[in-house]
Amino acid sequence: MKIKVFDNYEELSKNAALEIINQVKSNPESVIGFATGSSPMGLYNELINDYKLNNTSYRNILSFNLDEYFGIDRNHSQSYYHFMHTNLFKHIDIDDKNVNIPSGYTNNVKLECEAYNKKLDKNPIDVQILGIGRNGHIGFNEPGTKFDSVTHQVELDENTRIDNARFFSSLEEVPTQAVTMGIKNILNSKKVILIASGENKADAVYSMINGPVDQSCPASALQMHDNVVVFLDKFAAKKLKKA
Ligand code: GLP
């Protein structure tokens, strides 16, 4: 893993965004894996600014999102579909038909997951963007998830629901389940960039990088991947040993 530590979130976001901008410039038909949550918001703002200034085109990219809440319609204000459209897609020239986000509003979730896996197998991700949960989750792969898992339906950890309750009007409204790419899908990406900022991520970041490769910290699976770049602010990097 390559670790890059920045003084602040703005610098981190600018540098992480360059990974995507350069990828899309070098291959306009790139396959990009997107993430939700607050961590990649700065990166998305940088992509939007760059698009306005330099016209970097996303017209021919294919996108896959990591996850989606189960049981809420895609037009729900907290669906990840809505998040991606509001915070990125509607501001750039991505083609809607090239956007893939698992549906959490289906009566045949098994079929939905199988179709998502097939599409991912056919179109390997060039760069996957990741955040990390305080419990070390990636996507919605909670501690205990098998490393050979593919897209599946999951039960959310109570702590994850509590962390995400800030986006809802109450904890009761936070869905209890989600659909997520599995760890194997994530490891199949050619490159992974992971973003973490703030002291509340310092323990998870430490376990991901210095802890044992173990299901108790899903992000530790990334130690098995040979092309991972971790973008941290100095607060999230606090527990790492100085090089
Ligand atoms: C959420 C998402 C993850 C995200 C993580 C951290 O539950 N499913 O993809 O990386 O939690 O979120 P945040 O970036 O808001 O701290």
Topology diagram in text:
Elements: E1 2-6, H1 9-26, E2 31-34, H2 41-54, E3 62-65, E4 67-69, H3 80-87, E5 99-100, H4 109-122, E6 127-130, E7 152-155, H5 158-164, E8 177-180, H6 183-187, E9 191-196, H7 202-210, E10 228-233
Helix pairs in contact: 1-2
Task: Describe the model.
The strands form 2 sheets. This protein has a 7-stranded parallel β-sheet with strand order 1-10-9-6-2-3-5, covered by helices on one side. It has a 3-stranded antiparallel β-sheet with strand order 4-8-7, with helices on one face. The protein has helices at 9-26, 41-54, 80-87, 109-122, 158-164, 183-187, 202-210; strands spanning 2-6, 31-34, 62-65, 67-69, 99-100, 127-130, 152-155, 177-180, 191-196, 228-233. Strand 2, helix 2 (41-54) and strand 3 (62-65) form a beta-alpha-beta unit. The two termini are 13 Å apart. 31% of the residues lie in helices and 17% in strands. The longest helix is centred in the first third of the chain and has 18 residues, at 9-26. By secondary structure, the protein is an alpha/beta fold. Helix 1 (9-26) packs across helix 2. Bound molecules: 2-amino-2-deoxy-6-O-phosphono-alpha-D-glucopyranose.
